[in-house]
């Protein structure tokens, strides 16, 4: 089975909370703070593994999560960091945000390793909050939350040359002849049910990769016959070898086949339609009217295509000049970048947008306080005991909560609810 798309959710680990503990020893009457830091959350890491060919491993598993950092503890002990999540995907995998379709990561280099989502930092223990004024702080930092993202994995083959053409024109036979791909051969539509890669060796250190893409039919760019799924695999190729059945034994004209296939390429992608093509007129051994090839060659060159060759795969005739020209062109043509990557961090910031202060009137004289500022403080600190609640409310006041409450019409004596705490508003 060839799986070339999959949707999964990846989650980096949460950082562990810092500890708000105090030194307690038998002969130490007033031990100071000794709370350790929390451990860092695990990262989500992608690796482009050249030994993997499909995304089949993601067919059943849809959620992948890194380890959380452990809480800090007494005696300044730091929590253990969460384990990184390593996800191995084939070379050529593109990672998109599921909602916006933006490209976030393009893994086109073998063994490339990229930290995709960073784990949350561990919170600081209360030893960091001791000062000459605050000798016994009952406050510690919360571990930062990890990030969660629903993404789409897309696999596009990294071949130098793509074989395209109508079904049954001899693409599978061609790739079998020039490489060790061993693609199935038959005379019906979509014989090749998945793209097949082969390596063409021109010499000791001269080789290129060729992809046999399933036969295209009209409407392929719209998904007819899974055509759009197959077309995307050739977007990264440097050039196209377009095989046409010159014999016309199936009742089709080679010129018409050529135009129809190029129409599908153009409708799917302008970049794809602009790639250099080598046009190969196969089954020349079955052509009894030589003028038909001369007419076809003239037609192809009128389309602005310089390279056209007559061959017979079965008789093993005319193949070497095609491969030689393909090799020459590959050396000259750079691989195109498909699209610019979008920053994961920027996307996460956009997804988490929230108003600084959100004050809702739940009923007469009862208000709830929420918003990004509240979230940030709660994410950053752990408050313990009555002193911790007082510290929390003091922080909120310093950050401008009183002004926001007054603007919302809160009066003295009203009930304020914030982060599950209730208190009476006093001016």
Low-confidence stretches: 183-192, 217-228
> Number of helical segments?
10
- In percent terms, what proportion of residues is strand? 15-25%
Strand order of the largest sheet: 11-12-10-13-14-15
Q: Per CATH, which architecture of the largest domain?
A: 3-Layer(aba) Sandwich
Helix and strand pattern? EEEEEEEEEEHEEHEHHEHEHHEEHEHHEE
The CATH homologous superfamily of the largest domain is termed P-loop containing nucleotide triphosphate hydrolases
State the CATH class of the largest domain: Alpha Beta
Helical content stands at 10-25%
Number of domains: 3
Q: What is the mean predicted local confidence, pLDDT?
A: 82
Overall strand count: 20
The CATH topology of the largest domain is given as Rossmann fold
Briefly note the structural class of the backbone: alpha/beta
**Main sheet: strands, sense, barrel:** 6 strands, mixed
Radius of gyration: 32 Å
Could you give the distance between the termini? 70 Å
Shape: elongated
Lay out the secondary structure.
Elements: E1 5-11, E2 44-49, E3 63-65, E4 85-90, E5 93-97, E6 103-107, E7 113-117, E8 139-140, E9 148-155, E10 161-164, H1 171-178, E11 196-203, E12 206-212, H2 227-231, E13 239-245, H3 254-268, H4 270-273, E14 276-282, H5 290-302, E15 307-310, H6 319-332, H7 344-351, E16 358-363, E17 366-370, H8 372-380, E18 382-383, H9 385-398, H10 401-407, E19 415-418, E20 421-424
Parallel strand pairs: 1-3, 2-4, 10-12, 10-13, 13-14, 14-15, 17-19
Antiparallel strand pairs: 1-9, 2-7, 5-6, 5-9, 8-18, 11-12, 16-17, 19-20
């Amino acid at each position: 089975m060839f799986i070339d798309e999959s949707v999964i959710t990846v989650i980096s680990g949460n950082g562990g909370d810092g500890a708000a503990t105090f030194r307690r020893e038998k002969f130490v009457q007033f031990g100071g703070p000794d709370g350790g830091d929390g451990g860092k959350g695990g990262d989500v890491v992608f690796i482009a593994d050249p030994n993997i060919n499909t995304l089949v491993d993601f067919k059943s598993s849809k959620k992948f999560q890194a380890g959380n950092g452990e809480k800090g503890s007494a005696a300044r002990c730091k929590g253990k960091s969460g384990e990184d999540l390593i996800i191995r995907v084939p070379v050529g995998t593109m990672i998109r945000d599921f909602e916006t379709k933006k490209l976030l990561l393009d893994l086109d280099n073998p063994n490339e390793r990229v930290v995709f989502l960073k784990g949350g930092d561990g919170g600081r223990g209360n030893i960091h909050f001791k000062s000459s004024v605050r000798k016994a702080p009952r406050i510690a930092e919360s571990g930062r939350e990890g990030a969660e993202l629903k993404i789409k994995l897309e696999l596009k083959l990294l071949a130098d040359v793509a074989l395209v053409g109508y079904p049954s024109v001899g693409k599978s036979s061609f790739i079998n002849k020039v490489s060790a791909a061993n693609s199935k051969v038959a005379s019906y539509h979509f014989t090749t049910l998945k793209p097949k890669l082969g390596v063409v060796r021109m010499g000791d250190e001269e080789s290129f990769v060729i992809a046999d893409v399933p036969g295209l039919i009209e409407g392929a760019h719209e998904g007819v016959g899974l055509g759009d799924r197959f077309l995307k695999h050739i977007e990264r190729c440097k050039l196209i070898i377009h095989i046409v059945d010159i014999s016309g034994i199936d009742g089709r004209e080679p010129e018409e086949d050529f135009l129809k296939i190029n129409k599908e390429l153009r409708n799917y992608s302008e970049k794809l339609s602009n790639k250099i093509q080598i046009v190969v007129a196969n089954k020349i051994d079955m052509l009894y009217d030589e003028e038909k090839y001369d007419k076809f060659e003239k037609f192809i060159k009128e389309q602005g295509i310089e390279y056209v060759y007559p061959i017979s795969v079965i008789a093993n005739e005319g193949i070497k000049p095609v491969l030689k020209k393909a090799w020459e062109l590959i050396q000259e043509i750079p691989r195109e970048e498909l699209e610019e990557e979008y920053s994961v961090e920027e996307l996460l910031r956009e997804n988490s947008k929230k108003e600084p202060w959100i004050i809702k009137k739940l009923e007469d004289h009862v208000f709830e306080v929420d918003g990004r500022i509240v979230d940030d403080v709660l994410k950053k600190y752990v408050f313990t005991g009555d002193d911790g609640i007082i510290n929390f409310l003091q922080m909120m006041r310093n950050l401008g909560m009183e002004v926001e409450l007054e603007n919302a019409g809160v009066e003295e004596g009203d009930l304020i609810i914030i982060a599950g705490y209730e208190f009476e508003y006093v001016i």
